[in-house]
Amino acid sequence: MEKLREIVREGRRVGEEDPRRIVHSFKVGVALVLVSSFYYYQPFGPFTDYFGINAMWAVMTVVVVFEFSVGATLSKGLNRGVATLVGGGLALGAHQLASLSGRTIEPILLATFVFVTGNLA
Description:
Layout: H1 2-17, H2 19-40, H3 45-51, H4 56-65, H5 70-100, H6 106-120
Helix pairs in contact: 1-2, 2-4, 5-6
Protein name: Aluminum-activated malate transporter
Transmembrane segments: 21-41, 53-74
Family: Belongs to the aromatic acid exporter (TC 2.A.85) family.
């Protein structure tokens, strides 16, 4: 019970310091509930049937991208989208190069590409 009182006191202190932080936390919570409903709620079954367990990554994207201001959220979301497209293109190119090299060299090239990309990142 004492821990709960401490949490309430801390929340009240943060709310008095900067009320926008409390509003932001509610926005993040609502966004997480809405996105999670696509994953857990049965009427959206075709959504999870099509995407499978990967649908949970939509929830993770909300956690990673959601920022304090709208501009920061849009900027971070656009950067994430562009980076995903570039990464996908690089992966397709690496796969194409590796598949042209033959069965023996293919795993070696793929491991090398993963190592180099990981180090550059």
